[in-house]
Each structure stands twice: as structure tokens, then as C-alpha cells.
Design a protein that fits this description.
By secondary structure, this protein is mainly alpha-helical. The chain contains 5 helices and 2 strands. Helix 1 packs across helix 3 and helix 2 crosses helix 3.
């Protein structure tokens, strides 16, 4: 598994929450695969330059949401189907929260979907 770059943290959002978002992104982009072990708390803390307790809190949230299985003495493993669940959740959130704002801005700027689509391969 390749080591992703260290994140840049935002001051007014709890780091464990940002770490949760980062984990979701890494699951969606398949940096972390289903039925494979997540990095240890210490390893992820070192990679992200955060306190191990912060990572433990983020991992606890993943477990609370039912996304991981704990293997005693080994660590946490992502459950099968987690990526699909997260993909649906993130798509729904995008359509409800981000798309209306983006659509309004495109309309204000006079950018139609055809023009926007032409930039996808740039």
C-alpha cells in the first residue's frame, strides 16, 4: 500500500472529524480496500502527524457506523460493501448540499453543462 501524503488540517473543524473525512476519501479512492486491514492507530497517527488518540477516536466512529470489524491482536478490517455504502452516502450529500450551490454559481457565470463537460478531459 502506498503512503498517501499528509493532510493539511483546518483549524475550526475537529481533527478527528477531518480524519474521518480523509478515511472516507481513502476508502472511496480504494487506498484502503474492503476485507483488508486498515493501518494501525500508531501508523496512521504517524502518517497524518496527529495524536494516536485522535486516530483511535476516528476509528471508533468507523466502528460505530458499522464499517469495520475488529480482529483481536490484528487491528481493524473494512467490511465488505462499505465502499458502496459510502459512495451512495457521499453522492446523496453532494446532490443535496454541494450541487445546488455549484449549479447556482454555474448559472450566474453563464456556464452551461455542455461547456462544463468539455473541460472534463483537460
Amino acid at each position: 500500500m502506498r503512503k498517501p501524503p499528509s493532510p493539511t488540517w483546518i483549524d475550526d473543524v475537529p481533527i478527528y472529524r477531518q480524519l474521518m473525512d480523509l478515511l472516507v476519501v481513502r476508502i472511496l479512492d480504494q487506498t484502503y480496500l474492503e476485507n483488508e486491514m486498515l493501518p494501525s492507530v500508531r501508523q496512521l497517527a504517524q502518517d497524518c502527524e496527529v495524536n494516536p488518540l485522535t486516530v483511535a477516536k476516528a476509528y471508533k466512529e468507523l466502528a460505530r457506523e458499522g464499517f469495520t470489524d475488529k480482529h483481536r491482536g490484528e487491528g481493524l478490517m473494512l467490511r465488505r460493501g462499505v465502499r458502496d455504502i459510502l459512495l451512495r452516502r457521499e453522492r446523496n450529500r453532494f446532490m443535496k448540499e454541494e450541487w445546488p450551490v455549484l449549479r447556482s454559481r454555474l448559472k450566474r457565470l453563464g456556464i452551461d453543462l455542455r461547456t462544463l463537460a468539455e473541460t472534463f478531459n483537460d
